[in-house]
Amino acid sequence: MTSIRTLRTFISVAQCGGFAAASGKIGLTPAGVSQQMRQLEDGLGNPLFDRIGKTVSLNERGLRFLPRARQLIEQFDELMSSPEDEDDPVGSIDVEAVASAMSLLVRATLQARDRFPRLTIRPAVGYSVDLSARVESGQSNAAVAVRSLRPIAAGTLWTTLYHEPFVFMAHRQSSQGQDMASLMRSRLFLRPSRGTHTGGLIDRFLKDQGITFSDSLEMNLSRTLVEMVEQDAGVTILPLGRYSSWEESPKLRIERLDFAGGQREIGFLENERKRHLTSHVRRLLLANCAL
């Protein structure tokens, strides 16, 4: 008979893209993961994976079985965490966060481990452009994410946590005596991808202010952009992370930008199917943001 643990392993393999990747997430050896998946396939009487050498991927049957497995796990977790057990939730959830909020999520996770020993939280970092879709589809149960321009999808819950102001950054020494507009024209503009919500807000600001730039380089790693500015490779405009230490860097000149909509809203997006578990994380996040 297929166990709940085996179904959880199957879902982890589907999310991670292979036995080896899933093994690190769930604390089994790759051989142990493979054995569980063989047992699952034997129990169902059908193969769920295409195996080519060491590469493993879900086949058509596996893709059809995945949403059913997720539904069974959700029903089991909800059964094990009844309203009467509000102070002692039972189950496991995957919660992701944008890089700038990862320390906040980890802090809440550690607090939850102390308060709710039967609630397992698996934190992970994710790209802001993907997080909303992952929560909506159930690939993640919740995420600390950037609020997008589109409406919050049905079946999800949004709670605002805090706002991040946009700032202009340049190398402190080499930028002396020059304003932002002249630096944007003369230096390489290191920018977040235009395809992201953050990139769109920056584009709108530059257009509204009539600021032009001669050359640019796009990437989605804010930390790398800041490091390049510290090395005097160019200038950038970024949201100032609530938990970043950028303002402490002696190499950086940082100017806060004042414009309509010039903040990035960070919040907690939950898939309502596991709200009975993610609500505990939400309350811890709100408490930490209030400090």
List the helices and strands and how they pair.
Elements lengths: L3 H13 L2 H8 L3 H15 L4 E4 L2 E4 L1 H21 L10 E7 L4 H14 L3 E7 L2 H10 L4 E5 L9 E16 L8 H7 L2 E3 L5 H13 L6 E3 L3 H9 L4 E5 L12 E5 L6 E9 L3 H15 L2
Parallel strand pairs: 3-4, 3-5, 7-8, 7-9
Antiparallel strand pairs: 1-2, 5-11, 6-9, 6-10, 6-11
CATH topology of the domain at 163-263: D-Maltodextrin-Binding Protein, domain 2
CATH class of the domain at 163-263: Alpha Beta
Question: Could you say which structural class the secondary elements and strand pairing correspond to?
Answer: alpha/beta
**Total E-strand runs:** 11
Q: How many separate helices?
A: 10
Give the oligomeric state: single chain
Enumerate the spans where pLDDT stays under 50 for 5 or more consecutive residues: none
What does this structure look like?
The protein is an alpha/beta fold. Among the domains are: 80 residues, Winged helix-like DNA-binding domain superfamily/Winged helix DNA-binding domain (Arc Repressor Mutant, subunit A), CATH 1.10.10.10; 101 residues, Periplasmic binding protein-like II (D-Maltodextrin-Binding Protein, domain 2, 3-Layer(aba) Sandwich). The chain contains ten helices and eleven strands. Strands 3, 4, 5, 6, 7, 8, 9, 10 and 11 form a nine-stranded mixed β-sheet that branches. The chain has a two-stranded antiparallel sheet with strand order 1-2. Helix 8 links the parallel strand 7 and strand 8.
